[in-house]
Design goal:
Low-confidence stretches: none
Strand order of the largest sheet: 2-1-5-6-8-7
Oligomer: single chain
Strand content: 15-25%
Number of strands: 14
Distance between the termini: 9 Å
Structural class: alpha/beta
Largest sheet: 6 strands, parallel
Radius of gyration: 20 Å
Shape: globular
Mean pLDDT: 97
Helix content: 25-40%
Number of helices: 10
């Protein structure tokens, strides 16, 4: 299969290449695509060097699948050009997520909705993916009414510049700032840009994307997204109110039986999910599972995942795997 990785030199693009290699994705020809300033440079994949090409050349090559992680503006301009050439695009930006004509896919939840006619497929927001991975099986059983989520998000979610800012601050070096304030020894309640309603774009993604993925608008999500000085992995405190009551033992069993979810929940041994241990793993880790004692039928959980892997690259590659396995490309 001829595969293009668009944004191959970026932080998520590099992880996509790593994941494609790890999972032995069936590639007959690999096209590494980036902006004009990177064209002609070399990049290694599976021990072989590849020359980076531009977007126009990649479209002309007519790959079977193009996995995008090059930003919303690039995707809005170029994804339709790939689609018109017969390529199926899996896009990691926010450009197409809420487009009513585009599928928003977490493979374990709704890949079965995909057809050969879906030429642009949206990858959800990193924080959304890990949350719905844990919530989807519980919603099926108990019927969610309302979710309140507070996120604790890694600087890697912002990109290389933010990681460099944190590293500079730790080393006591002055450098370029990705954020309006220091991030070391700090927490910024500010992920993405502020909107007119006082929420950030990131918070509204968390509010809207789960409804689309689960194809259900009967529940609501209220979010506060916070950036913290961790280098990889997002964490979420999730409070979910259900229509129906639950037993904690059954909640743990359901989560344990959910592919892609790992329960780490034993207060006696201080066992709970942490981003330092989720790093470079594909699972979504769930712990601190406990009843909200202030409200009926309400559960508290702590959810952690590597935002560059399951939150971005791995989810996109899993979509591509589903397309290939089901002969949709």
């Amino acid at each position: 299969m001829k595969v293009a990785v668009v944004g191959a030199t970026g932080m998520v693009g590099e992880v996509m290449l790593k994941v494609l290699a790890e999972r032995n994705f069936p590639i007959s020809e690999l096209l590494l695509v980036a902006s004009e300033r990177s064209v002609g440079k070399k990049l290694a994949y599976n021990g072989e060097e590849h020359t980076i090409i531009g977007l126009a050349d990649a479209v002309a090559a007519r790959p079977d699948i193009a996995i995008f992680s090059a930003g919303g503006d690039t995707s809005l301009e170029w994804a339709p050009k790939f689609a018109d050439a017969g390529t199926t695009v899996v896009d990691n930006s926010s450009a197409w997520r809420m487009d009513p004509d585009k599928k928003l896919v977490v493979p374990e939840i709704n890949a079965n909705e995909l057809t050969a006619n879906d030429k642009i497929i949206a990858n959800p927001n990193c924080s959304t993916i890990q949350m719905v991975m844990a919530l989807a099986p519980l919603h099926k059983k108990y019927n969610m009414k309302r979710v309140v989520v507070s996120t604790y998000q890694s600087v890697s979610g912002t990109g290389v510049k933010a990681v460099r800012q944190l590293e500079n601050e730790i080393a006591g070096v002055e450098g370029e700032m990705a954020y309006p304030y220091p991030i070391g020894r700090n927490a910024l309640p500010h992920c993405d840009v502020f909107l007119e309603n006082g929420y950030t774009k990131e918070e509204m993604k968390l509010a809207r994307e789960p409804q689309k993925i689960l194809d259900d608008r009967t529940f609501s999500v209220s979010a506060t997204a916070v950036r913290i000085p961790t280098a990889g992995g997002h964490s979420e405190s999730v409070n979910v109110e259900f229509e129906n009551d639950f037993e904690l033992s059954e909640v743990r069993r359901i989560l344990n039986d959910t592919p892609g979810v790992t329960v780490q929940d034993n207060p006696d041994t201080n066992t709970y999910p942490m981003p330092i241990y989720a790093h470079d793993k594909d699972e979504v880790f769930v712990g601190r599972i406990r009843r909200d004692e202030t409200q009926r039928n309400t559960l508290n959980m702590w959810i952690v995942s590597d935002n560059l892997r399951k939150g971005a690259a791995t989810n996109a590659v899993q979509i591509a795997e589903y397309l290939a396995a089901n002969q949709l490309v």
